[in-house]
Amino acid sequence: MTRRLKVVWLGGRGFHSSYGGVENAIRELAKESARLEDIEPWVTGKGRSWWFVQKQDSGVNLVEAPKWLGRLGHAICSLGLLLYVIARVRPDTLFLFASGPSLLSVIGRGFGAHTVACLRAIDSQRDGWRGLNQGILRLGEYAATHVAHQCTVNSLAMQRFFAAKGLDTIYIPNGITPLAEPLPGYLESLNVSPEGYLLYAGRLDPVKRLDVLLEAHQQLPESSRPPLIVAGGKCKSPQYQTKLERLASKQVRFLGHVGQREMSTLMAHCSLFVLPSVLEGMSNSLLTAMGAGRCVLCADVPENADVVAGDPRVLFEADNVNALREQLTAHLEQKQRRQEVAKTIKTLSNNYSWRESAAAFCQLAREGRGG
Q1: Residues 130-184: pLDDT tens digits?
Q2: Nearest-angstrom CA–CA distance, 66 and 63
Q3: Fewer Cβ in 10 A, N or C end of the chain?
């Protein structure tokens, strides 16, 4: 039998991290690739020991960086992990996730690994990135499309963006992660009922436009305004955090980061999942809501519109508080409309599978055998 291909997924914070879309995608893709007889998957991330640690979980080999290396920042940690896996694992293929880690393509190629950059959004366009930081992200995107052997994108909009510049990319969509087992009594502890609240799930990052949702929610009639559950980690910008607190009505509940079972419980029972973000690749949270059969509402950026097949009942004009408020009102006043949209969206979700996405990534590894 041919030797198994050693495939390393690098760029996330670890196999067990749920920090964001990169971590969730790497975990699901690696788990699915472990099912394949010719693939030996490895995932890198931060650890808590004094030196690098290797272990296994769900058929996936894990490499955890020492705690002190993680404290030096994500970029330095990723570099250290890359040098370690090149020296100790000797990978056949490197999958470098996101714009920053894609800068490491030159090192991967230099040591003979088949190097695939995996862009998840046009990170250099994010709000707040200016000067040197923005320049580094642009350089990472250049490395992804000019230095790496291949470059994948997870949205058709991104593929069109690069095609307009004469650059070839490979479209591999995200899959949908099934909900975990619900947590009994969790909704009651939040004093909300099934189908009785709105849900936002994501980082408290300006580009996610939670402020737009909070303002639209505040403008709903107080007598019929449902609770808005905000499930997301701490905001890195004190100014933006202050803005969010100022816009939030009394019916808004900031939960911070929640566990997998808690999030699954919230997702399974919300009356409406809202994604106001204006910069996405392919949103994992949007796909999860679709797979759960929830009614969704999202900003009409191309990345979202492609996923929901341009359904006008699901989209609202990005950054337009009035447009979002009108859509919220229409959905909240018409239960049948929510049910019809949820049914349509559930059907569309059948187009997305982590198993099929992992198969596509692993095929790139096979094609690149030998660097």
Answers
A1: 667 778 888 999 999 999 999 999 999 999 999 999 999 999 999 998 899 999 9
A2: 10
A3: N
